[in-house]
Request: fold
Amino acid sequence: MTVNEPKFHSSKSEKPTIKPKQTNSWVPALLIGIAIAYLALVQYIPAINVFVQAFAKGVGPFFANLAKPAFLHAAWLTLLLALISVPINAVFGLCAAWAIARHNFPGKAIVLSIIDLPFSISPVVAGLMIVLLYGRNGWFGPWLQANDIQIIFAFPGMVLATAFISMPFVAREVIPVLEEFGKDQEEAARTLGANEWQTFWRVTLPSIRWGLLYGLILTNARAMGEFGAVSVVSGNIADKTQSLPLFVEDAYKQYETEAAFSAAVLLALLAVVTLVLKEILERKTRIKDVE
Reply:
């Protein structure tokens, strides 16, 4: 007599398969289209229109506008502003970056906030601040007037405004590079007998040179393209205190549209060169990864 043994059916637990959610294929295309349309309306079409208007009557009138005395004076004044303010901010930025990245001191966060002040404050307000300090009725106005020193509505005031607006770039680009670089090589150089100056020139500066150049390019671009603060302190006097951005506005108001667009093309080309150099340096130093 056979006993039927119970049959055990081993049922394997089947894991439920999770199907990936199918996203609508038109969503990425829609987002890309919105981004391109926005950039076209805000940047591409206005930039193309500047070039079209500048060359509307040919290349000859374009270069003729660039040869006018008012334009040449404005371009030369803009170049002088950059030649003065960029080295000043380079020295200040290196000193500030060195102090912040290499030392801990009370008020360090406040110093960083002050360096970032030109990013958060309106350039027009910055120009007004300079007027309230160095103007005729400002804090230092009576002393300056007694010593026959003119700051407002003169070139020195334009230098102050340009230097203030373009102040943060060198420091803000060098600080993360110094922090990433560390102190080991500098301490090794001091151990081998190098003084502070030799350590800076032979160890620190080569390690931050690309970040420094990156900051200088941004500083130069901001200095040559500044309008608001310089407009307040300069008075926008033709052939005297008129920089290139101010020349564009004044020429357009005087219905000299061809001269205005020709000068705008020069500023646009400067911006293109800045972007190209910026991209080259970002690839060279991988600044994006450091930040």
Summary: The two ends are 84 Å apart (CA to CA).
